[in-house]
Amino acid sequence: MIGSVYIENLSGVRYSVSYLISGDEGTALSKSRDICYEQTVEFPEDLTPDGDIKEHIVGRIEDFAKAGEKTYRAVISFAVETTGNDLVQLLNVVFGNISIKPGIKVERLLLPEELLSVFNGPRFGIDGLRKRLKVFDRPLICTALKPMGLSPAQLADQAYAFASGGIDMIKDDHGLADQKFCPFEERVKRCAEAVKKANEETGKSCMYIPNITGPAHRVMERSLKVKELGAGALLACPLLIGIDTVRLLADSDDIGLPIMVHPSFSGSFVISSMSGISHFVLYGQIMRLAGADATVFPNYGGRFSFSREECSEIASGCSIDMGHIAAIFPSPGGGMTEDRMKDIFQVYGKEFIVLIGGGLHRRGEDLAESSRYFARMMESM
Amino acid sequence: MIGSVYIENLSGVRYSVSYLISGDEGTALSKSRDICYEQTVEFPEDLTPDGDIKEHIVGRIEDFAKAGEKTYRAVISFAVETTGNDLVQLLNVVFGNISIKPGIKVERLLLPEELLSVFNGPRFGIDGLRKRLKVFDRPLICTALKPMGLSPAQLADQAYAFASGGIDMIKDDHGLADQKFCPFEERVKRCAEAVKKANEETGKSCMYIPNITGPAHRVMERSLKVKELGAGALLACPLLIGIDTVRLLADSDDIGLPIMVHPSFSGSFVISSMSGISHFVLYGQIMRLAGADATVFPNYGGRFSFSREECSEIASGCSIDMGHIAAIFPSPGGGMTEDRMKDIFQVYGKEFIVLIGGGLHRRGEDLAESSRYFARMMESM
Which chain A residues are Cβ-neighbours of B52 within 8 angstroms? Predict the structure, then answer.
């Protein structure tokens, strides 16, 4: 047994996490107590030293109440010092080991300004991205270059057509990496040039968003190359490259580009209603802390299974007050047909990015004309 | 519609993924077809260009059979070129978007040497790690410095006691980051010195394993510092820093240290039997591709919920033939009581690392004596 421990200069400031916990009241309360220890000292309660470790380092149940049938909500607070002012370590405390324990879902992060102040958050956010695109009064329209297997020249033709037709943002499909049939640098160069040419003709500010997701030693290099070649933003898959790697890209003054994040490899966190991380936190709050400016996710009613309510939650997570951390664009993809638009506007308001993929291609071979059609539709809403 | 597409220099070599898919036969078959498209061209089948894209880039169902009640096994192959010889993009194809679709579980990776050859895998593996530790004939014994809240000096005292008592490997608790009450560099320096001193006294080769998990721009810096300060290996949480970041550390000749990976933040991938990634693939195959030498996970019968069978699967994933990719140590933690040891040996054989945490502390204040007790127990098995 270690004796009583005193820790110098603890601020007393705490952040909180709201967890949904499955089970009857006794089980849920016991799981809540377990979270307090598992996520900090990772030590049995009776062996944990008295003094500042038990008083401050161990998590503290601030609130515990029934949230539904066999579900309880526990709000647990932790000392801000546990995070070391580091997003990775914050996530480690919030959900590291307990990700392996069934029936615990992170519902919401409640972060004081003392902790938020260590993060810059999005460099652009909704306002900054609108300024870049010079579109202020309607949702933004984004599409993707696809399918995998086309050459850089073929994708550049697509990009030119989309940009000519009035699409605001053109992203790489997230499956476009650095394959030999479509090398990263050649693709970015050609597509950036194609979009630039179209912009000169239309007078618009369409943004090309290459996918910089890749090997750990290439992510920064590719992002700088994107900047050098004149593309307008970065597409990144945080669960593949590391959530904090996105933060690093967002913080880099050498890059200084907007970042759109893609949910590839993230689904396991949200697929269970009883375990994992809520849509609100994962696609909203965490992506804002990581400095994303737009967060892609599958829209309700499309080929994925997110519900209308879950999508609405993501939109809330993108805009809920987080001190100086800017609001960002929810970017739902799929299911964007004309007859569903009214309902989609009800869920997202006007502050969202419409992601149209196959729908644009389905209208026929003239992609510029199909783009114009969707742009008109969006302007008329 | 894009016309027929020809892609130069496709090798024809394919890798396969075995998926477990929930549903009746029709649903499962339809989901399998969907995987072929969703994970590659992300395009509706009828819009996908003929020629090499449909023939080679789109996934191909190689086998489809009933695997259990309302579960089917689909083996789907992809062109090696889709990966761009990149672990991140391999994971993207294997489970990127479909992570968001319920009822799909990655069961096993079947990788041809053409693809394996682009990865170095573990620098040490089981044989290399045993050579470093000079222990050849029994499982290795590892414990953790804890709890969070202790100072570097207090943790160094622990490390000295453990090393003096015959523990083979001493890792930082994964919650030790760079908190101001326990700064990274001071901790690593003091603990490395303490273990070195003990080794000089015992003549053994106990290894100290600092946790380098941290902000994206600090991971490499901390790993080099670990090397410089004479600690023996790295502890990393791949799901927090990015799986490929581990590969980068393993590949670095400047570091050249063994890597132990920790499952923090990974649980959502394995918590459902119907969605996610199997224990075999996530903690075994993927960690080997990433170059880990030892993979930590919660043992069955401890305070987590992995079953005996799931733990056994991890052990298989650590050692199954993967060409030149070395076998690595499964490192189960928890539940290591004397009366369970016989069964634990049955599951893991002798090639595993026993992770003992609270159990060592529970035996009393003399940690060196408790360490000797466990070391004797392990030697007598």
Answer: 149
Strand ranges (DSSP E) for B111-258? 140-145, 169-172, 207-209, 234-236
Query: In the structure encoding, which two tokens stand for residue A378, read together?
Result: 């969006």
B-chain CB neighbours of A268 within 8 Å are: 99, 268-269, 271-272, 275-277
The DSSP call for residue B299 is P
Q: In angstroms, what separates the C-alpha of B136 from chain A's closest C-alpha?
A: 30
- Mean pLDDT across B278-298: 98
* Beta carbons of A88 and B213 less than 8 Å apart: yes
Closest Cα in chain B to A264: B96
Q: pTM for the full model?
A: 0.98
Are A336 and A354 in contact, with CB atoms under 8 Å apart? yes
- CA separation (Å) from A83 to A50, A286, A317? 21, 14, 21
d(CA A10, CA A356): 50
Question: How many whole angstroms separate alpha carbon A212 and alpha carbon A237?
Answer: 8
User: What's the alpha-carbon Rg for chain B, to the nearest Å?
Assistant: 22
Cα B274 to Cα A340: distance, rounded to the nearest angstrom: 31
H helix runs in chain A, sequence order:
25-38, 52, 87-95, 113-116, 125-133, 152-164, 184-202, 219-228, 238-241, 243-251, 267-270, 279, 287-289, 308-319, 341-348, 358-362, 367-380
Cα A69–chain centre separation: 30
Rg value, chain A, Cα = 22
The residue among A81, A241, A244, A297 with the most chain B CBs within 10 A of its CB, best to mutate, is: A244
What digits encode the pLDDT tens for the residues B185-232? 999 999 999 999 999 999 999 999 999 999 999 999 999 999 999 999
Asked if the model's pLDDT at residue A164 lies above 90, the reply is: yes
Query: Percent helix, strand and coil across chain A, each rounded to 5?
Result: 45, 20, 35
| CB-based contact B146 A43, cutoff 8 Å | yes
pLDDT at residue A330, rounded to an integer: 98
Cβ of A178 within 8 Å of Cβ of B97? The answer is no
Query: B275 vs chain A: nearest CA distance in angstroms?
Result: 7
Long-range contacts of B368-373 (CB under 8 A, 24+ apart): B368/B161, B368/B162, B368/B164, B368/B165, B369/B165, B370/B165, B371/B143, B371/B161, B371/B162, B371/B164, B371/B165, B371/B166, B371/B167, B372/B165, B372/B166
pLDDT at A31 over 70: yes
Return d(Cα B328, Cα B315) in angstroms, integer: 9
- Backbone phi and psi for residue A24, each to the nearest 5 degrees, phi listed first: -75, 175
Q: Residue B215: its chain A contacts at CB < 8 A?
A: 86-88, 244, 247-248
Strands B14-22 and B71-79: antiparallel
Alpha carbon of A75: minimum distance to chain B alpha carbons (Å)? 19
- List, in order, residues 6 or more apart from A155 with CB less than 8 Å away: A145, A176, A182, A187, A190, A191
Comparing CA positions, the residue from A238, A163, A262, A251 lying closest to residue A208 is A163
pLDDT at A381 over 80: no
Contact A266 B173 (CB under 8 A): no
Q: Cβ neighbours of residue A188 under 8 Å, at least 6 residues apart?
A: A208, A210, A225, A226, A229, A231
User: In the beta sheet, which residues pair with residue A110?
Assistant: A16
User: How many whole angstroms separate alpha carbon A360 and alpha carbon A369?
Assistant: 9
Nearest alpha carbon to residue B71 among B25, B102, B15: B25
Per-residue tokens: A15: 């952040």
Angle between helix axes B308-319 and B341-348 (nearest 10 degrees) is 40
Q: Which residues of A touch B99 (CB under 8 A)?
A: 264-268, 271
The side-by-side arrangement of strands in the sheet containing B60-68 is: B60-68, B71-79, B14-22, B104-110, B276-277
Phi first, then psi: what are they for A232, rounded to 5°?
-95, -15
Stated as kind and residue range, the H or E segment containing B152 is helix B152-164
Question: What is chain A's length?
Answer: 381
